[in-house]
Specification:
Keywords: Membrane, Transmembrane, Transmembrane helix. The protein is mainly α and about 220 residues long. It has one domain. It has helices at about 1-40, 45-70, 80, 90-120, 135-150, 155-160, 165-185, 195-215.
Protein backbone atom coordinates (compact mmCIF):
# COMPACT_ATOMS: atom_id res chain seq x y z
CA UNK A 1 0.00 0.00 0.00
CA UNK A 2 2.88 2.35 0.76
CA UNK A 3 4.42 1.64 -2.66
CA UNK A 4 1.10 2.39 -4.33
CA UNK A 5 0.67 5.69 -2.45
CA UNK A 6 4.21 6.79 -3.26
CA UNK A 7 3.89 5.89 -6.94
CA UNK A 8 0.45 7.51 -7.11
CA UNK A 9 1.75 10.84 -5.75
CA UNK A 10 4.65 10.83 -8.17
CA UNK A 11 2.49 10.00 -11.19
CA UNK A 12 -0.09 12.63 -10.26
CA UNK A 13 2.65 15.27 -10.25
CA UNK A 14 4.19 14.07 -13.51
CA UNK A 15 0.83 13.54 -15.19
CA UNK A 16 -0.40 17.00 -14.24
CA UNK A 17 2.70 18.62 -15.74
CA UNK A 18 2.24 16.71 -18.99
CA UNK A 19 -1.52 17.17 -19.39
CA UNK A 20 -2.02 20.78 -18.30
CA UNK A 21 -1.44 22.23 -21.82
CA UNK A 22 -4.36 20.16 -23.13
CA UNK A 23 -6.48 21.25 -20.16
CA UNK A 24 -5.58 24.88 -20.88
CA UNK A 25 -6.56 24.53 -24.55
CA UNK A 26 -9.94 23.00 -23.71
CA UNK A 27 -10.54 25.72 -21.10
CA UNK A 28 -9.72 28.49 -23.58
CA UNK A 29 -12.05 26.93 -26.15
CA UNK A 30 -14.88 26.83 -23.62
CA UNK A 31 -14.23 30.45 -22.66
CA UNK A 32 -14.30 31.32 -26.37
CA UNK A 33 -17.69 29.59 -26.60
CA UNK A 34 -18.96 31.92 -23.87
CA UNK A 35 -17.48 34.99 -25.60
CA UNK A 36 -19.14 34.07 -28.90
CA UNK A 37 -22.51 33.67 -27.18
CA UNK A 38 -21.94 36.99 -25.43
CA UNK A 39 -21.01 38.90 -28.60
CA UNK A 40 -23.84 37.46 -30.67
CA UNK A 41 -26.40 38.36 -28.03
CA UNK A 42 -27.55 34.78 -27.56
CA UNK A 43 -27.55 32.82 -24.33
CA UNK A 44 -26.72 29.12 -24.14
CA UNK A 45 -28.99 27.32 -21.71
CA UNK A 46 -27.85 24.95 -18.99
CA UNK A 47 -28.86 21.79 -20.85
CA UNK A 48 -26.95 22.84 -23.97
CA UNK A 49 -23.83 23.63 -21.97
CA UNK A 50 -23.91 20.35 -20.07
CA UNK A 51 -23.73 18.54 -23.41
CA UNK A 52 -20.77 20.69 -24.48
CA UNK A 53 -19.03 20.11 -21.15
CA UNK A 54 -19.51 16.38 -21.46
CA UNK A 55 -18.10 16.23 -24.99
CA UNK A 56 -15.14 18.42 -24.03
CA UNK A 57 -14.36 16.35 -20.95
CA UNK A 58 -14.71 13.16 -22.99
CA UNK A 59 -12.17 14.25 -25.58
CA UNK A 60 -9.85 15.46 -22.83
CA UNK A 61 -10.09 12.06 -21.12
CA UNK A 62 -9.16 10.40 -24.41
CA UNK A 63 -5.89 12.36 -24.39
CA UNK A 64 -4.91 11.62 -20.79
CA UNK A 65 -3.42 8.10 -21.16
CA UNK A 66 -1.14 9.09 -24.04
CA UNK A 67 -0.14 12.38 -22.42
CA UNK A 68 0.56 11.04 -18.94
CA UNK A 69 1.71 7.50 -19.79
CA UNK A 70 2.81 7.69 -23.40
CA UNK A 71 6.35 6.77 -22.38
CA UNK A 72 5.61 3.37 -20.84
CA UNK A 73 6.25 1.39 -24.05
CA UNK A 74 8.93 3.65 -25.50
CA UNK A 75 12.20 1.81 -26.27
CA UNK A 76 14.16 4.68 -24.72
CA UNK A 77 11.97 6.29 -22.05
CA UNK A 78 10.05 3.16 -21.08
CA UNK A 79 13.04 1.45 -19.49
CA UNK A 80 12.85 3.73 -16.48
CA UNK A 81 9.21 2.82 -16.00
CA UNK A 82 9.96 -0.88 -16.42
CA UNK A 83 12.61 -0.94 -13.68
CA UNK A 84 10.52 0.85 -11.06
CA UNK A 85 10.72 -1.22 -7.85
CA UNK A 86 6.99 -2.02 -7.85
CA UNK A 87 5.01 -4.86 -9.39
CA UNK A 88 2.80 -4.66 -12.45
CA UNK A 89 -0.42 -4.77 -10.39
CA UNK A 90 0.68 -1.66 -8.48
CA UNK A 91 1.75 0.11 -11.68
CA UNK A 92 -1.53 -0.67 -13.39
CA UNK A 93 -3.62 0.31 -10.37
CA UNK A 94 -1.81 3.64 -10.14
CA UNK A 95 -2.14 4.26 -13.89
CA UNK A 96 -5.86 3.53 -13.79
CA UNK A 97 -6.39 5.73 -10.73
CA UNK A 98 -4.55 8.69 -12.26
CA UNK A 99 -5.63 8.50 -15.90
CA UNK A 100 -9.18 7.18 -15.47
CA UNK A 101 -10.32 8.85 -12.26
CA UNK A 102 -8.19 11.64 -10.76
CA UNK A 103 -7.14 13.75 -13.75
CA UNK A 104 -10.44 13.46 -15.69
CA UNK A 105 -12.45 14.15 -12.52
CA UNK A 106 -10.40 17.24 -11.65
CA UNK A 107 -10.78 18.59 -15.18
CA UNK A 108 -14.50 17.82 -15.33
CA UNK A 109 -15.03 19.55 -11.99
CA UNK A 110 -12.94 22.50 -13.18
CA UNK A 111 -15.12 22.87 -16.28
CA UNK A 112 -18.25 22.93 -14.13
CA UNK A 113 -16.69 25.56 -11.85
CA UNK A 114 -15.56 27.59 -14.86
CA UNK A 115 -19.04 27.45 -16.38
CA UNK A 116 -20.58 28.66 -13.12
CA UNK A 117 -18.10 31.55 -12.93
CA UNK A 118 -18.79 32.62 -16.52
CA UNK A 119 -22.56 32.37 -16.05
CA UNK A 120 -22.30 34.49 -12.90
CA UNK A 121 -20.03 37.05 -14.57
CA UNK A 122 -22.32 37.40 -17.59
CA UNK A 123 -25.43 37.90 -15.44
CA UNK A 124 -27.57 35.88 -17.83
CA UNK A 125 -25.77 37.04 -20.98
CA UNK A 126 -23.77 34.42 -22.88
CA UNK A 127 -24.70 31.65 -20.47
CA UNK A 128 -28.17 31.63 -18.97
CA UNK A 129 -28.86 29.76 -15.76
CA UNK A 130 -26.54 27.71 -13.59
CA UNK A 131 -25.88 24.16 -14.71
CA UNK A 132 -26.19 22.99 -11.10
CA UNK A 133 -29.78 24.24 -11.16
CA UNK A 134 -30.73 21.98 -14.07
CA UNK A 135 -32.99 19.00 -13.44
CA UNK A 136 -31.09 16.05 -11.95
CA UNK A 137 -27.84 18.00 -12.31
CA UNK A 138 -26.08 16.19 -9.46
CA UNK A 139 -27.03 12.72 -10.69
CA UNK A 140 -26.27 13.73 -14.26
CA UNK A 141 -22.77 14.88 -13.27
CA UNK A 142 -21.86 11.48 -11.82
CA UNK A 143 -23.60 9.58 -14.59
CA UNK A 144 -21.72 11.47 -17.29
CA UNK A 145 -18.42 11.11 -15.45
CA UNK A 146 -19.00 7.36 -15.21
CA UNK A 147 -19.54 7.22 -18.96
CA UNK A 148 -16.33 9.16 -19.51
CA UNK A 149 -14.39 6.63 -17.43
CA UNK A 150 -15.88 3.67 -19.28
CA UNK A 151 -15.56 5.05 -22.80
CA UNK A 152 -11.94 6.01 -22.16
CA UNK A 153 -10.99 2.36 -21.62
CA UNK A 154 -10.02 1.75 -25.24
CA UNK A 155 -7.53 4.64 -25.05
CA UNK A 156 -5.85 2.95 -22.08
CA UNK A 157 -5.36 -0.10 -24.29
CA UNK A 158 -4.30 1.95 -27.31
CA UNK A 159 -1.68 3.75 -25.27
CA UNK A 160 -0.08 0.43 -24.34
CA UNK A 161 -0.31 -1.16 -27.79
CA UNK A 162 0.71 1.73 -30.04
CA UNK A 163 4.09 3.41 -29.74
CA UNK A 164 3.42 6.44 -31.94
CA UNK A 165 0.35 8.52 -32.77
CA UNK A 166 -1.46 6.77 -29.94
CA UNK A 167 -4.65 8.85 -29.89
CA UNK A 168 -4.96 8.95 -33.69
CA UNK A 169 -4.43 5.22 -34.15
CA UNK A 170 -6.82 4.42 -31.30
CA UNK A 171 -9.55 6.59 -32.84
CA UNK A 172 -9.04 4.89 -36.21
CA UNK A 173 -9.24 1.47 -34.54
CA UNK A 174 -12.44 2.55 -32.76
CA UNK A 175 -14.01 3.71 -36.02
CA UNK A 176 -13.04 0.44 -37.69
CA UNK A 177 -14.49 -1.61 -34.84
CA UNK A 178 -17.63 0.52 -34.75
CA UNK A 179 -18.08 0.12 -38.49
CA UNK A 180 -17.68 -3.64 -38.14
CA UNK A 181 -20.22 -3.87 -35.31
CA UNK A 182 -22.79 -1.59 -36.93
CA UNK A 183 -22.24 -2.13 -40.65
CA UNK A 184 -21.49 -5.86 -40.68
CA UNK A 185 -22.84 -7.37 -37.48
CA UNK A 186 -25.77 -4.90 -37.20
CA UNK A 187 -25.50 -4.76 -33.42
CA UNK A 188 -27.56 -1.56 -33.39
CA UNK A 189 -30.57 -3.56 -34.57
CA UNK A 190 -30.47 -5.94 -31.60
CA UNK A 191 -33.12 -4.95 -29.08
CA UNK A 192 -33.09 -5.36 -25.32
CA UNK A 193 -31.02 -4.34 -22.33
CA UNK A 194 -28.38 -7.07 -22.64
CA UNK A 195 -26.55 -5.60 -25.69
CA UNK A 196 -26.49 -2.20 -23.96
CA UNK A 197 -24.99 -3.71 -20.80
CA UNK A 198 -22.44 -5.69 -22.77
CA UNK A 199 -21.36 -2.72 -24.89
CA UNK A 200 -21.40 -0.06 -22.17
CA UNK A 201 -20.12 -1.94 -19.12
CA UNK A 202 -18.81 -5.44 -19.80
CA UNK A 203 -16.71 -4.45 -22.83
CA UNK A 204 -14.82 -1.64 -21.01
CA UNK A 205 -14.00 -4.00 -18.13
CA UNK A 206 -12.70 -6.60 -20.59
CA UNK A 207 -10.62 -3.91 -22.29
CA UNK A 208 -9.10 -2.92 -18.93
CA UNK A 209 -8.26 -6.57 -18.26
CA UNK A 210 -6.66 -6.85 -21.70
CA UNK A 211 -4.73 -3.63 -21.04
CA UNK A 212 -3.24 -5.15 -17.89
CA UNK A 213 -2.16 -8.26 -19.77
CA UNK A 214 -0.58 -6.10 -22.49
CA UNK A 215 1.22 -4.01 -19.87
CA UNK A 216 2.84 -7.13 -18.44
CA UNK A 217 4.10 -8.09 -21.89
CA UNK A 218 5.49 -4.75 -23.07
CA UNK A 219 8.70 -5.21 -25.06
CA UNK A 220 11.39 -2.51 -25.31
CA UNK A 221 13.10 -3.37 -28.58
Amino acid sequence: MRQFARLLRWEIRCGTVKIWPAAAIFSVLYAAYWVIMLLTGTAAGAEDRIAVLYIGAQFFAFCVPAAAYGHINSPSDGIGYAILPVGNPVKFASMMTVSVIIIPFCFYTWLYAMDSALAFAGEGNGFSGMIWAADNAFCGFWSDFGKICLYQSVFILGNIIFRKHKVTFTILAMLLLHGLCIGVLHIDEIKGIIPVLLYSYVLPVLIWALSYQCLKRVQYR
